[in-house]
Amino acid sequence: MAVVLIFVPQPSVSLHPSYGAAVGDNVTVRCHVPRVATWIQLWLNGMLIHNIKNDEERDAVEFSFPFVSLKDAGTYQCRYQVSEPLWTSNRSDPVELVVE
């Protein structure tokens, strides 16, 4: 019996603007995936908030938050899934959005 190990590269996440935001600002969370993914997920404070199908086979997906509010503050992470073969990455290292 052979054991096959699959290396699943970790995604990364970034914020724009990266220094924080004021209530009412527009914030973009960008998820960078190291390979073409079928689904890309965005997590806020450990809860899945977006799960989008990546039909365009992009290596990054942006989530826009126009008119950000205090409820949008917290720790963001990304995760992705590939369908052939089926596997899911670990979550990215977190980034913190501070809203004042």
Describe this structure in words.
The chain has 100 residues and is an all-beta fold. It has strands spanning 12-16, 27-32, 39-44, 47-53, 60-65, 74-83, 86-88, 95-97. The protein has a single domain, classed as Immunoglobulin-like (Sandwich). 0% of the residues lie in helices and 46% in strands. The strands form two sheets. Strands 3, 4, 6, 7 and 8 form a five-stranded antiparallel beta sheet that branches. The N and C termini lie far apart (57 Å).
Radius of gyration: 15 Å
Helix and strand element order: EEEEEEEE
Question: What would you call the structural class?
Answer: mainly beta
| Fold-level CATH name | Immunoglobulin-like
Which outline best applies? elongated
Range of helix content? under 10%
CATH superfamily: Immunoglobulins
| Unreliable sequence segments | none
Q: How far is it from the N-terminal to the C-terminal residue, by CA?
A: 57 Å
Q: Number of domains in the coordinates?
A: 1
Work out the helix count.
0
CATH class: Mainly Beta
As a percent range, the share of strand residues is: over 45%
The total count of strands amounts to: 8
CATH architecture field: Sandwich
Q: Overall mean pLDDT score?
A: 87
Query: How is the main sheet built?
Result: 5 strands, antiparallel
Q: What is the subunit arrangement here? A: single chain
